Automatic annotation (TrEMBL), chain A:
NCBIfam families: sda_alpha. It comes from Paenibacillus hunanensis. The keyword Iron-sulfur applies. The lineage of its organism: Bacteria, Bacillati, Bacillota, Bacilli, Bacillales. This is L-serine dehydratase. Residues 16-276 form the Serine dehydratase-like alpha subunit domain. Signal peptide: none annotated. It catalyses: L-serine = pyruvate + NH4(+).
TrEMBL record, chain B:
This is L-serine deaminase. The keyword Lipoprotein does not apply. Residues 148-220 form the ACT domain. The lineage of its organism: Bacteria, Bacillati, Bacillota, Bacilli, Bacillales. GO terms for molecular function: L-serine ammonia-lyase activity. It comes from Paenibacillus hunanensis. NCBIfam families: sda_beta. Its cofactor is [4Fe-4S] cluster. Transmembrane segments: none annotated. Keywords: 4Fe-4S, Gluconeogenesis, Iron, Iron-sulfur, Lyase, Metal-binding. It catalyses: L-serine = pyruvate + NH4(+). Belongs to the iron-sulfur dependent L-serine dehydratase family.
Amino acid sequence: MQFRTLQDIVRLCEERQCSIAELMIVEQVKETGVSREQVVEQMTSYYEVMKEAVHRGIHEDTVSRSSLTGGDARRVYDYLNGGETAAGSHSTRAMSYALAVSEVNASMGRIIATPTAGSCGIIPGVFVSTQERFSWSDEQMVLGLFAAGAIGYVIANNSSISGAEGGCQAEVGSAIGMAAGAVVELRDGTPQQAMHAVGLALKNTLGLICDPVAGLVEIPCIVRNGLGAVNALAAADMALAGVRSAIPSDEVVDVMLQVGRTMPSEHRETARGGLAQTPTGRKITEELRRRRENQGS
Amino acid sequence: MRFKNVFNIIGPSMVGPSSSHTAGAARLGRAARQLLGELPEHADIILYGSFAETYWGHGTDLALVGGLLDYSTDDPRLPDAAEIADEQGMTIQFEKGSGNYPHPNFVRLRLKCGEQQAELAGASIGGGNIEIHELNGFDVKGSGQYPTLVVEHMDSKGVLADITRTLSEGELNIGFMDVDRKSRSGEAMTLIELDGIPSAAVLKQIEALTHVTRAVVIDLD
């Protein structure tokens, strides 16, 4: 790839007079030797999976194997259809869709890791809800996914997208930044504005720990996906309004890595700290262990 | 750069809930099955570290068995893999491993079908990516990211030259290779990651080479 930093993306887009999505597609074709048609086709098939997951999570009962979670997406969706919501209907819709995909994931349904399975709800939640709202075509949404991918590529290589390495900020935080930047581009913002959105979003999740109860991608992961979708929309709006990330977004990405490195291992996906070790978190873990032993599996 | 392209970030397409504990596990199971070359009659699966502690809630067990059925990471049958394997007459024994292991998500699979046996040890390193550590007792490393040719042969002068020449004549480019032998002039294995999938004809030519005992392809895409 010709870019390593978010600022490289802005510079190359300005030089080539192209969108972030176009830059990502051209660089992907160069890197892999796979044709443009095939690259776009693969991303299109991924967007189909995302839409299916939203639909399933909203319209079917999803219960996780542990039976700890499920049904929250439908709760929020029904609440949304019952009248005015506190966050406004658009944000609430994005939230319900993000919860839907995360619940499908927890129930062993099919999803796209964006960038991971633990954070797989945020991008579909934001994308599918904004597509409905602004009547964007699937082609536009697929371009949006390439823009999100370019941002994620920089974060993953300069910082981390793994909860075990960098805590939840690396998974949910990265997904929020990717979604926020992509929405800016879809709303005709400039690449520079998109990168500000990334910085603004990441600042809000810096330090977020990965503390899954019983080590499962359920509590609190699913709820964080729902709230993450709302944050992504908010960060996109800030950037589109002209708010800049006073700390350059690349520096925010770098500091996310430093914060992740100084996080104790208890807070990096080991379930040895945080919510996993609250009295209730421990009780749930113990109950699951007992149930499993009784099942003899 | 640890992540090479956009589909390492958006992707893989997978059955949940965890890219490391589910998608990676499915790929490890599938690699073992392809090493065996057919549906196993029996599998011993030994789980280590986080795999052993949290496999149940992540469906790691189902994903591994799905892999043994040759399912991809996004095959909708993965959650039902245990029942399907049972229907197909496969018996599976899960165990918790003890002793040292090189990665928090580590598994060893021992497969049997008639006289044929296969053994794979490997790790799930995140985002659905895997690392092969050991095949049939040979210390060979592989990523599973490319079509992988596994050749069992005798340690002898010119064998590798014969294999690579055959691949070159088959228009196949080598990206990575690893060789291990049990003893000088004894049994050996070569793992070769390729940019393309070897045809049945190329595989046959390699198996026909002097000193080569067996050649199989592991292709996880």
